[in-house]
Amino acid sequence: MKKVLTLGALLFTAGVSFATNGDNLIGVSPASRGMGGIGVGMPVGPTDSIFRNPAWMSYYKGFNLSFGGILFMPTVKAKSNVTPLGPWNPPAEATSQAKFFVVPEVGIVHQINDRLTFGIGAFGVSGMGTDYRNKDPQFSNMHTTFQFMRVIPALAYKVNDAVAIAAGVDLAYGSLDMGAKMCDQSKPPNCWNAGGGQSQTYGIGFQLGLAYNMGDFLFAGITYQSPISMTYKRVFDSNNDGRFEDFKLTQPQELAFGVGIKPMQNLKVGMDVRWINWKNADGYKHFQWKDQWVIAIGGEYRPIPKLALRAGYNYGKSPIRGGAKDSSNFKNNIPNFDSPFSDFNIAYFNLVGFPAITEHHITLGLGYEFTKTFSVDLAYKHAFNKKVRATGANGLVVEGQNAQDAITVGLNWKF
Question: Which N-terminal residues, if any, form the signal peptide (predicted)?
């Protein structure tokens, strides 16, 4: 399993900064991403079904192969007046040097018989990070990356013409780097490079799906993804003892449901609602992430049979919150770290190192069938700029901003 996941991870560009719903992508295929990330409540394509709701694999006949990628173009900024000796005003401002990233996806869906359909896909599904090296010292030389991908074999069973059920195994690969300069409270302060470099690990989880299709007119679906526990070895030195500590970071469980309607042969519209349980996932909960309710709405219209025009909207409130933070009480114990963090320390790491704060997304897409066996899908996503600001004692302030553009391309074959 490790060889397969590592091979896939070679395609996963370092230095990522593409968080959208928390650190999760809104969708993996251009068909889904062009419609706001829907795919739980109605079928939007064989590849996305593997990831979003594997029960919809039963909707597709024959053998389907898709591969493609996402080009991310984030604009991430930070503001800080934090120094080891206290606030230094005016606050420094900087733009992260992480500019362009590529995220791959590949999937195969094969109808075994009238009842069974098998699918397997490899997807970069989560990630974030920044690069403030050689910027103002008030950004602590912060350079972070988090990458998470899933290889998912799944099997769908068609109970009858209306109902299908499915299960999949999530074979996960993760990579984490938490590079930063840390300082203690002594005078003069003692500072050290806390990052232990890139740490890689593996995990396993599962997903379940249910799909309902009433006469190819009304659709509904529900899915569950289990948490995936990951421990990143020797990733951070929190207390300058020369020993790099481990960090336990669990990708959270998710529950999603959706509905869709196809009132005409050339028109379909759907809506999904997803619950992402950040506040109970190790690591995320210690960094004070809140749960998200994500709403995705999208549709597709075909003016001619070969051409699909798509549009959508996606919203999820930022799991990272700002406001007044306690900067003097170091009470937050991070899993496997020797030194605790204050609330303001946590806000600083979130907003400078891992600003997964975007909320509103609009999407556009199109697909064209060149032949009966080959088609191309394209999608564009814009995440509107979101700013979160935290304050501490004596005028301490830290702020993160995140806006994104992304282009997705997919090539599809069916036989």
Answer: 1-19
